[in-house]
Amino acid sequence: MTLVRASDHLALVNLTDQALRVRAVQAASTYDLDTLVTLMQAYMTTASRKGARTSRKTLDAYSLAVRDFVPWAQANGVTLLRPGLRDGGRYVAHLQTRDSQGQGKRGRLSPATVAQYVAGARALYRALRWAGATEAQPFEDAHVPPDPTPGIVKNPPYMDEIDAALEHCDARLAALLLLCAHGGLRITEALQLRVPDVQGTRAVVHGKGGKTRVVPLSRRLRDALRALPALGEDGHLFGWTYPQATYRMQKAFRAAGRADAWRGFHAARKHSGTRLYSATKDFTRVGLFLGHSSVDTTRRYVAVEQDDVASEVEGF
Q1: Residue ranges of the Core-binding (CB) domain (predicted)?
Q2: Are 176 and 85 in a shared domain?
Q3: Using an 8 Å Cβ cutoff, are 266 and 208 in contact?
Q4: pLDDT computed for residue 1 by the predictor
Q5: Residues 14 and 72 both lie in one domain
Q6: Which of 48, 83, 187, 248 could form a disulfide with 138 if both were Cys (CB 3.0 to 4.6 A apart)?
Q7: 202-206, strands of its sheet edge to edge
Q8: Which residues, at least 6 apart from 249, have a Cβ–Cβ distance to it below 8 Å?
């Protein structure tokens, strides 16, 4: 039974405390997926730490996780409002031993995917507690082992793939790739860029979590942006959604004979971080450039040669 449309999560926020509790209890008791997803979204956008600034990407990822966890709970005899002490650990073990169900993917779920699914399930229980439906915290002691393989190894930066792909991009697609590979922008930041944001040799970037930063632009990137007319009165430079941009860039990689090298736009962002670190040897400056709040995050974006300090230790 679907009581609230999944897209209308704010409708739950306007209910009285008692009505919200009743709605949440009914949804959990009947394993009503749509309402539980809606409840989680309502909590994330109004009561979580980031509130209304919670990204669409996070909401989509957590919604997918809830749609995975709830059917598993129902099939395995888990009462959502009164789960057993070990049910959280049971779900983690299930994820760790389950085969990937994505298109073109084989083998077990990656540790990152397991962590994402568990984070979504935890968010569901925070939402149920927020609604007054339960005090259960089945994932409080559930341990999700970290991935021992560094992200920079699993998804290294593009190197010569950038120039190879650029030869098969039109002007607008080339500018988008350069914004990631030279400007260090996240793909969502690049797609939102407007003509007024480009100010001479710099661009004002409206980034993750509502933060704004000023990014220096390479000569090549400046030339690419100057050649682009705005797409409308609002001044946007790109009219693509993320899937549309991905489709076009994958096509360019295939045309360049690099189809197997495509690893998403994030590898282009790592390209800029790696090149800048090679020039500066300063993680703090690279982190500011990329818009990171922690240098620890920046280290995961930079490919450093294992013998990077060989010349320094030569005279020890």
Answers
A1: 31-129
A2: no
A3: no
A4: 38
A5: yes
A6: 83
A7: 198-199, 202-206, 212-216
A8: 165, 169, 173, 176, 177, 262, 265
Residue type, 70: V
Q: Supply the DSSP symbol for 6.
A: T
Best CA proximity match to 29, nearest among 73, 84, 80: 80
pLDDT digits (tens, 9 = 90+) for 121-140: 999 999 999 999 999 999 99
Q: Which amino acid is at 266?
A: H
Using DSSP's 3-state secondary structure scheme, residue 258 falls into coil
> 96 near 110, Cβ under 8 Å?
no
Structural contact between residues 172 and 256, judged by C-beta atoms closer than 8 angstroms? no
Encode 132-146 in three state secondary structure. Answer: CCCCCCCCCCCCCCC
Q: 204 — phi, psi (to 5°)? A: -90, 120
* 54 occurs within a structural domain: yes
Amino acid sitting at position 241 = T
Query: Are 103 and 225 within one domain?
Result: no
In this model, does residue 302 exceed pLDDT 80?
A: yes
Is 306's pLDDT higher than 80? no
pTM (predicted TM-score): 0.71
Residue 208: inside a domain: yes
Sequence length of the chain is: 316
CATH number, residue 225: 1.10.443.10
Same domain, 57 and 116: yes
Q: How many domains are there within the chain?
A: 2
Q: Is the residue at 311 inside a domain?
A: no
Residues 241-254 have pLDDT tens digits of: 999 999 999 999 99
Which stretches of 131-282 are DSSP H helices? Answer: 151-154, 161-166, 171-181, 187-191, 219-226, 242-255, 266-280
172, 286: one domain: yes
Instruction: Record the tokens describing residue 301, joined without a space.
Output: 């974006």
